Amino acid sequence: MRLRLHGGTVLLVAACLVAGPSVVHGQEQVMGFDGFGGAGTGTYPVPGQPHEIVPLPTGDPGTHGFYTFFEFMYLASYRTMGEQTIAYRGLVDSTGATTTIPGIYVGSGRPALSTDQLTRQSYMPGFNIGIGYKMDDGTSIHASYIYLWDTNYHTGATSATPFSRSRADLSDTYLVSGVFNFPPQFAGPAISTPVENQRGGNIFYGIWNGASTMDIEYNQRFAQGEIGARVPMFQTEYSRVYALAGGRFNWIWERFQWRTVEYDIAGNQAPFWAARYNNTLSQRMYGPYIGCGHEMYIGKRFSVSTDLTAAGLLNFVKERAKYKLEDNTIQNKYSRNDYTFVPSLAANIQLWWYPIQGVQLRCGYNAWTFFNTRRMEEPVGFNYGSIDPAYDVQVFRIVHGINVGLGLFF
């Protein structure tokens, strides 16, 4: 019966703890079915209310005991990656066979693929599960875990230009990107264009020069673990205030993927003519949290609660980037670890319902904010020999959304 901000874990846990209001001989329990074990139980007369007997193995919400809960989460997270152009329409004359000068660009040079083509926000379904124990004085301790399934953003470019528009030499039907310092294994097919078929192979050298398709994908994942306690501070028949404290773990995981495929003049494709680039940013944050909450009984076995917590988290940052051929014969990696301090605020508001003794239902809105996390400013480092993607500070980040769950008190 109080609202728990992060994943609604503590809230739900607590609420689950004090399950359902039971009505006895014309009296309605006001705060005794307290989801997290409040101290004082108040009653008021309800004329004609029958005695309620529930044949379930749930306990008396007014005493000590274990509780558990499970709820569905549906949260949104903004894409924090920066904007970077990945590929252009055209080719680069590597040998000078067509332009007489090596390195001359052939084509319009219009951007064909960039990160700003990815959706900026999407929703992640997931769950929140936990267990706890409530003491006779109303204090409860709990452990909970929130996990959200991956959110995937995808876009791509092919040789099919918009409305089939291209130059007379069809150069815009090809894709080119500025990857350099790569070994010969990434040269691609010797003959992939009509010009190379006429004048000799490898005029447009490299898998990323004269490619037919390129795809980019961005994945996000979020998880939270928590161990904490809820301690009653002040309570009346219709309202209670409580303190929150404990330890919290947050994990923000992001991955950028880029796949490039080149075909030979006959339209054949092989794994050694396809290249992949991955950039993974993993941020695991650990630290204590403190906060407070307030719950108010509104009648008919319903209550409303709000929670607010603040946390100081040590952020363990892992940056990983890699180029490789799709046949896995060769690859090059970038790896870096860092540590930052991340302040965090979390809040939620919940509506509780206690339909029967030992059972609690809740729904609400949750928001977690993080300050000073990292983000991929430019996810692609084009220097194969010394991969150098650009990372930056994400001043503000938010994960927010709704929850619906069930709690049981034993």
Protein described:
By secondary structure, the chain is mainly beta. The protein has a domain at 6-58 and 66-76 and 120-146 and 215-395 and 403-409. Helices cover 4% and strands 57% of the residues. It contains two helices and 19 strands. The strands form four sheets. The protein has a ten-stranded antiparallel beta barrel. Strands 8-5-11-12 form a four-stranded antiparallel beta sheet, with no helix packed on it. A three-stranded antiparallel beta sheet has the order 1-2-3, with no helix packed on it. A hairpin with a 2-residue loop joins strand 15 and strand 16 (302-325).
Secondary structure topology:
Layout: H1 9-17, E1 23-24, E2 27-29, E3 43-45, E4 65-78, E5 85-89, E6 91-93, E7 104-106, E8 111-114, E9 121-134, E10 140-158, E11 175-176, H2 194-199, E12 209-211, E13 213-235, E14 239-261, E15 274-299, E16 302-325, E17 331-353, E18 359-378, E19 390-409
Antiparallel strand pairs: 1-2, 2-3, 4-9, 4-19, 5-8, 5-11, 6-7, 9-10, 10-13, 11-12, 13-14, 14-15, 15-16, 16-17, 17-18, 18-19
First-residue to last-residue Cα separation: 16 Å
**What's the β-strand tally?**
19
Helix content: under 10%
Stretches where pLDDT falls below 50 for ≥5 residues? 1-58
Structural class: mainly beta
Mean pLDDT value: 84
Computed over alpha carbons, the radius of gyration is 29 Å
How do the strands line up in the largest sheet?
4-9-10-13-14-15-16-17-18-19
Beta-strand content: over 45%
* Mass-distribution shape: elongated
Task: List the secondary-structure elements in sequence, H or E.
Answer: HEEEEEEEEEEEHEEEEEEEE
Instruction: Please count the helical segments.
Output: 2
Q: Give the biggest beta sheet.
A: 10 strands, antiparallel, barrel
